[in-house]
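Aim 2 progress update. The chain analyzed this quarter is reproduced below.
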Amino acid sequence: MKGHFTNIVCVLNDTHKQDEVVAQAIHVAKRHQAKLTVVLKLDALPPNAKMVMQSFAYLETQTSIESSAGVWLNDKAESWREKYPLDTEVRIGENTNDFIRYVVETGFDLVIKLSEADFLERLFGSDDMNLLRKCPCPIWVVHRGNSRQYDTVVACLDLNYHYPEHEISVRRSLNLDILRYAAQVALMEFAQLHIVHVYDAVPENIARGGFISVDDNHLTSDLHDIYAERDTELERLLNQLDEELDEGALEYLAPQRHIIHGYPRREIAATARSLGAKAVIMGTVARIGVPGFIMGGTAEETIGQLDCAVLGIKPEGFISPVNESS
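Predicted structure tokens:
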């Protein structure tokens, strides 16, 4: 079943206070009885490094850096392995695309990493966003200080199926996958599960600009119909999820539904924050019928407004632009 992991990689971008994210990776790996690899991923020396670092004899070459990094990682791994068996690897000088190719070639089905930023102005760094955009497997980005406090899990669904026919089945499948992953995280964390869908009848910027006239009575009726349509679809998805989970699991989770009229680019994140979300599970794609066309405005803006962990999911059959360009 989707939501179960077998081969997890935990990515460390430096050596500063990484025990927390490794502890989270061990926690997830234990729950899923998955293979775990911890990778220390460091930037390469710049081209002018020899000139800049003439006075730093202890950093003579990239080989010496790799050797020192390997010693550090092996020392740390001794304590980590007391909690769970894991492999380690040092990778230096890879850009995000190189790392994504490594993830695909190694067959990892989950990437866990600490967010590059830990201040409110920029909670997700460029590497985080590139992985969420391009990596075909789920990406779990955690924030320093809250990685093990997932008492509230939010699944964000796009239940609007008014798209070309070839996209509808993919969208439905993605929504079900998001629910599968969210249910597994909530069960693992003994957390309350919330399901959020935000819909609008008329894009806010069009209505606010006065570009069209809106009949309030007709709009109220349309909004009622849209709500009923989305509620029916959510019920169908939950019934399907109930058939897949262990007996009584969905009843135990008792997910709370939030089908909200509003501007999705604002209200999805606002609702997650108001619910006290510690982890948000969402699709990080736009026109999923178009291979490699990813991270639409709603997903990008939502992620940029969140202050909690994010588990980003791609649809079945997603083709990474990294693969296409290789």
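The radius of gyration is 22 Å. The beta strands are 7-12, 35-42, 87-92, 110-114, 139-142, 152-156, 192-199, 256-261, 279-283, 309-313. These observations will guide the mutagenesis experiments scheduled for the next reporting period.
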